[in-house]
Amino acid sequence: MPKKNEKFELKNHKLGKGIKLKNIETLGVGLMTYSLFLGAGNIIYPPMLGIESGESFSFAILGFLITSVGLPAAALLIMSKFSSEKMLTSIISPKLAVIFWGCLYLVIGPAFGMPRAVNVAYEMGVEHLFDSIGLTEFSVVFLLVVILFCFWSESLVSVIGKVITPLIVIMIFVFTLYAISNPADSIVAPSGKFEANPLVTGLLEGYMTMDVLAAIGFGIIILNRIREYHSVNERGYRSAVMCSIVIYITLMSFTYVSLAYIGQSSNSILKDISNGADVLTQYSEYSLGNYGRLVFSLIILLACFTTLVGLATSCGQFVSKEWGGNYRVVVVSVIIMSYLPANFGLNNIIAFSLPVILTLCPVAIILLVGHVFGEKTQNMRTSALILLGTLLAFLDTANILGYLTNDNLVEKLERYNPLFSYHLSWLFPVAIYSLMMLVRHVLPESKKKLGLAS
Question: Do the beta carbons of residue 213 and residue 113 sit within 8 Å?
Answer without folding.
Answer: no
